[in-house]
Amino acid sequence: MSHTIAEKILKEHSSLKEISPGQFVDCDIDMIMVHEQLGGRIHLEYNKLGIDYIWDPDKVFFILDHWVPPPTISSAQMHQDARKFAEKYKITHNYGHQLDKGICHQVLPEMGFARPGMLIVGSDSHTTTYGAFNCLSTGIGATDVSVVFATGKLWFKVPESIKINLRGHFEKGVMAKDFILSLIGDISTKGALYKSLEFHGDGAKNLSIDSRMTITNMVVEAGAKFGIFLPDDRLKEWLAKRTSKQYRNVVPDEKAEYEQELSYELSEITPTVAKPSNPGNIAKVEEIEGIEIDQAFLGSCTNGRIEDLRIAAKILEGNKIHPKVRMIVTPASKEIYLQALKEGLLEIFLRANAIVTNSTCGACIGGHLGVLGPDEVCISSTNRNFKGRMGDPTSEIYLASPATVAASAINGSIKDPRGLI
Amino acid sequence: MDLIKGYAYILGDDISTDDIVPSHTLTMRDSNEMVKHTLEFIDPYFSKNVDRGNIIFAGENFGTGSSREEAVHVFKLLGVKAVVARSFARIYFRNLINNGIPAISLNWDLNQVAKEDVIEISLLKGLIINKSQNSTFNFEKIPEFLMDILENGGVINQLKKILK
Ligand code: SF4
Fold first, then answer.
1. Which domains, from first to last, does chain B contain?
2. What is the ipTM of this complex?
3. Measured between alpha carbons, how far is A211 from A166 in angstroms, rounded to an integer?
4. Those residues with Cβ within 8 angstroms of residue A125's Cβ, 6 or more apart along the chain or in another chain
């Protein structure tokens, strides 16, 4: 039988000789990522099991990122609970004390833990991000984490796959974020429910790893279980710098069956936003230009990477942020922070009057370092704009690309970045 | 676990886990404090009146967004007995079952169920009876291995037995 990438990886991690969409399979997990949730619900659930071991402490990656460094006493206590658990169960990849590292979905791949062919789960819905590395990855809740901790296994329903053919290049000022928002607009927030999105074509090969991560990060906003890219030389090069571990590339069979096929010419994508208060509420930037903003946020696991900071710095260089706007720049990891420092990007941000913070989820989850007040409007490079997500429930969030965020920060209102680059 | 009796509570499409458990409550260490904020941006009285609305009827993509299991845990603490939705976000679906709360997929609409309608559900028959409107619905039964998790009152209890 012919298989998609998702079918192949699930099959290889099960004891079955053949599988097909709709079937339930038990799979061995290669790696599990946990963050603050370990100190939130996970440790409470796991303690109920009354066992004193984790199936394989070498396959657990633990990092703290959401409230880093802790802005409140209760978040500090959450961190303590999480660390206590990690020490008790001797988790090998324990970064619970290294609060300088950055956001889980950036740091885990940077350290070479996401490799082709792997099956990875995490206590966070944006665990889908690692699909950029030709592995299968998805988010799970606290009790499912407990199941994996205890047994190393988890059940999956084999998903149908949707093939997405990408062609060409983006025009100047247009980014992967504009594409993924357009896709969500086209298929809706439930368009890929339970499904695996597979990205094909020359257009996919033309995308940087950073851009691919932006796309796989947000496939979950279309409901998808997995989002996955094919392996290529660009990925090989990226991995060579980060891991010496062996891996096996996974490509779909020629006759693999897809539930649906969609095609996009990347040069036809234009700057796109998600209006309040749902990631599926899509509009073109040119249709909504002029909406005044109070805050511009550049960061998160969606768009806090070096290419994002570069394009924003390019737009901001020699300019000042609008006097009524505060701009917050949060690099997604320390590695990115250091690179931006080396390239002089941080100086450009600071001279433009932006605030540069340490690497954390921070404003994305309304936790700290950029919480919105009543009725405030924010243009944000993040992935969710639900009511109250970044602060007060009356505040409004427009999701956009880093280029649109930077252009809008200078302008004081939402602005198309094309023409500024 | 078969017969479930309760009262309907109505919610729309794309209700997110941020709606159910707002981010600002996530670091609260006292669950009893957290439950008071359940669905607060949509209905500040939800947690107070939950006894008259303990079977949720929701639209598409229920539980979209963050994987935070607190969004199921608060329902469990408040005594929500089942969630019926036109469709579920996948992590939320798993979280419901894993906590012993039936997740039922059903194409229903606002003409068929109203707030506080008296509802009876038979999981084994795949049948919902709306006593207030004298109507019935059939739904696709929950697969056996998921029913087993529900019968055990959640995946943690089930796992405890297996590990013994
Ligand atoms: S940056 Fe935002 S979306 Fe990403 S993991 Fe952190 S809170 Fe979640």
1. 3-163 (3.20.19.10)
2. 0.97
3. 13
4. A139, A220, B65, B66, B67, B91
* pLDDT (0 to 100) of residue A95: 98
Using a CB-CB cut-off of 8 Å, the residues of chain B touching A142 are 69, 95
What is the 8-class DSSP label of residue B13? S
State what percent of residues in chain A have pLDDT above 90: 99
Write out chain B residues lying below 8 Å of A35, CB-based.
none
CB contact under 8 A, B64 and A49: no
Strand partners, A228: A198
Is A139 within 8 Å of B98 when comparing Cβ atoms? no
Per the document, the length of chain A is: 421
Calculate mean pLDDT across residues A297-312.
Answer: 98
pLDDT in tens, A21-70: 999 999 999 999 999 999 999 999 999 999 999 999 999 999 999 999 99
Ordered by where they begin, the domains of chain A are: 23-157 (3.30.499.10), 159-269 (3.30.499.10), 274-420 (3.30.499.10)
Mutation pick from A143, A189, A193 vs chain B, by most beta carbons of B within 10 Å, is A143
Counting atoms of ligand 1 from 1, which one is nearest the CA of A384? 3
Stated pTM of the model = 0.98
